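Tutorial handout. Part one gives the primary structure; part two gives the three-dimensional structure as tokens.
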Amino acid sequence: MPTDNHPFPYLESILQYATREVLFEEAHDELVESFNPNDLSKLARVHEMIVAAKSEHAVSSWYRSTEKLPSNDPRKKDGNDALYLMYLFEILHDAGVPPFSERLVKYQQFEENSITDWSFLPAKFRWIVDAINELALIPANSKAQTQKLKQVGDQLLPDVHEFYSIMAKLDSSMYTKLDELESLLRRLEDVC
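Part two.
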């Protein structure tokens, strides 16, 4: 990593696996198959370090803190690298590769202490919260985003009328997350 005093120096050893080019240009199944046991072992060690330190919120928050930095600021690249690493963990989770399959580390779109009251959603729709977090990892208008949106659309389709009925009853001034759900629905309509 280019900057001194990096808040997560243990990430440095695996960042070559999580570059934008690797994550968004290769098909995910081919990417997962390209890892040899040594690669997966290195990734698993860092994954376990994040779990042990309970630092997934800190890594996610740190990425968000670098988003608005100028593109020539080395901390911005460091933040992007951390985001790509979280996305790589998501890919390995989706592929069922242990220990990632347990989904112990994932990108947290929202601040740990921010209001994230999703109680207005019935339990059967709470998976949408994870979908929103996952979509936050994926660059807009990318092939990966389209694939994820289609996956979400397929999962939501059997209950879409019930979901829209719930959405119609919500008052946006009462629920801070309504705008995120509406954004997800607009993107789903564009893709599906």
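Part three, for discussion. Residues 74-94 form the longest helix (21 residues). The chain is about 60% helix and 0% strand.
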